[in-house]
Write a structure and sequence with these properties.
205 residues; Glycerol-3-phosphate acyltransferase
Length: 205
């Protein structure tokens, strides 16, 4: 019982680590909470700190989710990695190091999927990239890829996977509610590539 509690605590603490915040503070002398969207996750790291910092943040956010998902293996436990990973998502969203505030946990959630089922991870990421290339919107890509993950999980006949992906999808939509409003009004931020961004630029030329 103690080892189980310890495993969930470790998972939460892993999720609470905020690479985007610390990279901004240590190397750029910026608090990314004060710029861009104010979010401490990957997307705002790209926006405020640049490509190099954004890539590092993405990889670290992904890996901390993967590390959390691998904790049952480390602890020689039969607990489903997806359940343990939920604690990391809570940690990322309500970080103990940032007064229980945090990011939207998209990359961290993907990392947990990588630990649990690499093939499912590749499928979800492929959908994310495809939607991003079409819409030029990270928020739209996240919401659609998670929705697809719920649908795809039904074919795996894995009840825990389906339940957790449903919970994660609801959570992702909730955390992106302001983005949804901006998408509806046509004011959502876009990445500097993709079909939508190309069409919009051509219209303004």
């Amino acid at each position: 019982m103690f080892s189980t509690i310890l495993m969930f605590v470790f998972s939460y603490l892993l999720g609470s680590l905020m690479p985007g915040f610390w990279i901004g503070k240590l190397f750029y002398h910026k608090d990314i909470r004060d710029e861009g969207s104010g979010n401490v996750g990957t997307t705002n790291s790209f926006r405020v700190l640049g490509t190099a910092a954004g890539i590092v943040t993405l990889v670290l956010d992904l890996l901390k989710g993967t590390a959390a998902g691998l904790l049952p293996l480390l602890f020689n436990s039969n607990i489903n990695p997806m359940l343990v990973g939920v604690a990391a998502i809570i940690g990322h969203t309500f970080s103990i190091w940032l007064k229980f505030k945090g990011g939207k946990a998209v990359a961290t959630s993907a990392g947990i999927l990588l630990a649990y089922n690499p093939y499912f991870f590749i499928l979800a990421v492929s959908v994310f990239i495809l939607v991003l290339l079409l819409t030029s919107m990270v928020s739209m890509s996240a919401m659609i890829s998670f929705s697809f993950a719920v649908f795809a999980s039904l074919f795996y006949h894995d009840l825990v996977l389906t339940i957790v992906t449903i919970i994660l999808t609801i959570f992702v939509f909730y955390r992106h509610r302001s983005n949804i409003s901006r998408i509806k009004s046509g004011t959502e931020s876009t990445v500097p590539f993709g079909l939508y961004n190309s069409i919009r630029q051509n219209r303004h030329q």
